[in-house]
Design goal:
single chain; 444 residues; alpha/beta; Rossmann fold; 3-stranded antiparallel beta sheet; 49% helix
């Protein structure tokens, strides 16, 4: 009977998805869920849907809702973190202030000024969670679902909390690549390693045969077809999220030799080659995908309907790894997942202690990452630049040193390709002023 605490449980869809995933496993149908959020109305909504799900399937599971963090964590076995500190109010500053300086982030949740400040806000919210966990559930596993994943996981792991960060970019990209190459389900496998949103498919096999050359050929042909279609007036709008033929990720693959895990829109923010001017953006990403605009314009009635549907849906697990980890650790059923974990000699040419994304065995002994060794040099070089930014953010959040935050943004490759040091300093100072309510570790 594991106790699962979900912090940030007032979301419309994801908390309920996780609850349904957990209850899909017969061995977990007596689980105890503690839902915690700072927004009572949102919390009550999720609690009602979860209760309906449990009662509708006549399960012995129980669910409680509370705004009391410490009470929610008391005796927890698993602590799931899924929140966006400051919501849209803070996110607006993350994207609109840099845009005034010429930095057009389409997501802004991983690196760049948006990712840096989201990481600082999240660190401030993690501090009381970490303190309470150390006292009331020191052996619990923190399952991080919030972005920026690498920064958040590094921060909580550094504080001594057992942490694994989960994303779906490995699953999604591997499936996309297999489909592009025409492989049937169950006939392909891969090895992926690196950082969250910037991990690399260093192996890909079909029926036991290396198909990396085919992967490169297939993705270059796909990108070329998209370029030709664009010239003919067809922007492949059905591939909007992928970026119109994955032009950016294909270019990165041609640079490094290996395909990476996050979409071309995300990937374009992490390097200096794709977003320096609006004309350059239009070459690489002919149709805009803007996550802030998507969040701002959510159809909340539709989200409510989707949540209601989830409460009635059959008990089948989604592709998210969270429930698989809980089931594996509770029942000692070995499973393999991709998770973000501390780099304790796992990837030998990246900084010790940073957060890396690798395959992990999970059983009653916990989350056990697999050894990778050296990444290919160009992949490690790209990752190392990202780690430098993340390191400054983590240390800045730990110490309240604003100069480390200035350094983090200045080290970001997209930012430094567009702005001078004086412009970066002015932008960061403006963001500190705007986001001060969510950054108590830096004072007033």
């Amino acid at each position: 009977m594991p106790k699962i605490t979900i912090i940030g449980a007032g979301g419309y869809v994801f908390p309920l998805t996780l609850i349904r995933d957990v209850l899909s496993f017969p061995a977990l149908r007596d689980a105890r869920f503690s839902l915690m959020d700072v927004a009572p109305d949102n919390l009550a909504r999720t609690h009602g849907h979860a209760q309906r799900l449990i009662e509708g399937h006549d399960l012995p599971a129980t669910v409680e809702a509370t705004t009391d963090l410490r009470a929610s964590l008391e005796g927890a076995d698993f602590v799931v973190v899924t929140f966006q500190v400051g919501g849209l109010d803070a996110y607006k500053h993350d994207v609109e202030i840099p845009r005034r300086y010429g930095l057009d982030q389409c997501v802004g949740d991983t690196l760049g000024p948006g990712g840096v400040f989201r990481g600082l806000r999240t660190a401030a919210a993690l501090d009381p969670i970490i303190a309470d966990m150390q006292e009331v559930c020191p052996e619990a596993l923190m399952i991080q679902y919030a972005n920026p994943m690498s920064i958040n996981c590094w921060y909580s792991s550094d504080a001594g909390i057992k942490t694994v960060g989960l994303c779906h970019s490995v699953q999604g990209t591997s499936q996309m690549l297999a489909e592009r190459m025409g492989f049937e389900p169950g006939t392909w496998s891969f090895k992926c390693a690196g950082l969250n949103h910037q991990a690399w498919f260093i192996e890909f096999q079909h029926r036991g045969k290396d198909v990396l050359p085919l992967l490169r050929e297939t993705m270059n042909a796909y990108a070329q077809r998209a370029r030709v279609a664009r010239q003919q007036g067809d922007n492949e709008s059905d591939e909007l999220y992928g970026g119109g033929g994955e032009q950016v990720r294909t270019a990165i693959m041609n640079l490094t030799g290996y395909f990476q895990t996050e979409s071309s829109h995300h990937a374009s923010e992490y390097l200096p080659y794709f977003r320096r001017t609006s004309d350059e953006v239009n070459v690489w990403l002919p149709e805009r995908w803007d996550y802030y605009e998507i969040c701002k314009n959510h159809d909340f009635e539709a989200l409510e309907c989707r949540a209601a549907d989830l409460a009635e849906a059959p008990l089948t697990p989604s592709h998210e790894y969270g429930a698989y980890i809980i089931e594996a650790m509770t029942t000692n059923t070995p499973r393999v997942i991709y998770g973000n974990v501390p780099n304790t000699g796992i990837i030998t040419n990246l900084m010790e202690g940073c957060s890396v994304e690798v395959s992990c065995l999970v059983d009653a002994q916990g989350v056990q990452p697999t050894y990778i060794g050296d990444l290919p040099p160009a992949c490690a070089g790209i990752n190392a630049g990202s780690v430098a930014v993340q390191d400054c953010v983590v240390r800045g959040a730990q110490t309240g040193d604003q100069e480390l935050v200035h350094a983090a943004v200045a080290l970001d490759r997209y930012t430094s390709a567009v702005l001078t040091l004086d412009q970066i300093r002015a932008m960061v100072d403006e963001m500190f002023t705007a986001e001060q309510p969510w950054l108590p570790q830096f004072g007033s």
